[in-house]
Design a protein that fits this description.
Layout (H helix, E strand, L loop, with lengths): L2 E5 L19 E2 L2 E2 H11 L4 E6 L3 H8 L8 E6 L5 H13 L4 E5 L2 E2 L30 E6 L10 E4 L2 E3 L5 E10 L16 H9 L3 E5 L5 E2 L3 H8 L9
Parallel strand pairs: 1-4, 1-6, 4-5, 8-12
Antiparallel strand pairs: 2-3, 6-11, 7-13, 8-11, 9-10, 9-11
Length: 239
């Protein structure tokens, strides 16, 4: 399996830090955000990685190089202007190939996530080895998280039937997903396109799967959130 790390965003809410440093290179607990992902992907056996970039993208390329120092093989997809999530993926399709691939946003911090759990999520056959009907098989598989304070209503409801747009168990998309390349074939390279409408359509057709991740997960948007993660642990003086 190949992976794509989305690293083209401007990071407006993270300013002024992102005026001089691309958001994926901001450090959390001593390590750039994007490096956490690369090391965890390699640990899971996923070594072929595509990274898109735009704002201060040369800094990302200079820092990561070809990926060999991490045990990875990194290719880059430059964007000017930024193409949004689906547009960026569509432009990178020639680098990602014809098999399902993993996509993770560079600006989330999920230090203990096991990317190996994503490798077989879009199997063509069911548990008994029978092929799924083409109109019933999942076209995407999303990792979900419990709703953070800034997103209390969530994105999708998770049930045994997959992800739906409404229900009692609403969860937040954790910005980690596995996708079949076919769902992006209708987007011309260089086109600005968002991912949400594609996912909503798949959910409505019953072709969107997912699972809940219960580990540490942070969607970093502001300097205050970054500072909180980097703050030294509080010592209880009463103990």
């Amino acid at each position: 399996m190949k992976a794509m790390i989305l690293a083209a965003g401007r990071g407006e809410r993270m300013r002024p830090l992102t005026d001089t440093c691309p958001k994926p290179l901001l450090k959390v607990r001593g390590r750039p955000l994007i490096v956490w992902h690369i090391l965890n992907l390699v640990k899971a056996g996923i070594t072929e990685i595509v990274i898109n970039h735009a704002h201060l993208g040369a800094m990302i390329v200079d820092t990561l190089g070809d990926g060999s120092k991490f045990g990875a093989q990194i290719q880059y997809s430059a964007e000017d202007p930024v193409l949004e999530t689906a547009g960026g993926i569509a432009q990178a399709l020639p680098l990602l190939g014809d098999a399902p691939f993993l996509v993770v946003s560079a600006d989330i911090y999920v230090p203990h996530f096991n990317f190996a759990d994503c490798i077989n999520t879009l199997e063509d056959n069911d548990m008994w080895g029978n092929p799924h009907p083409l109109d019933k098989r999942d076209m995407a598989w999303l990792i979900m998280a419990k709703n953070p304070a800034f997103h209390p209503k969530g994105d999708f409801s998770l049930s045994l039937m997959g992800l739906t747009r409404s229900g009692e168990n609403m969860l937040t998309f954790a910005n980690i997903g596995v996708y079949r390349p076919e769902i992006f074939h209708g987007i011309q390279p260089g086109t600005h396109a968002k991912l949400a409408p594609i996912l909503y359509d798949l959910a409505d057709r019953g072709q969107l799967g997912g699972e809940l991740y219960r580990g540490e997960w942070h969607n970093l948007g502001t300097p205050a959130q970054l500072a909180a993660l980097n703050a030294p642990p509080t010592i209880n003086s009463s103990q």
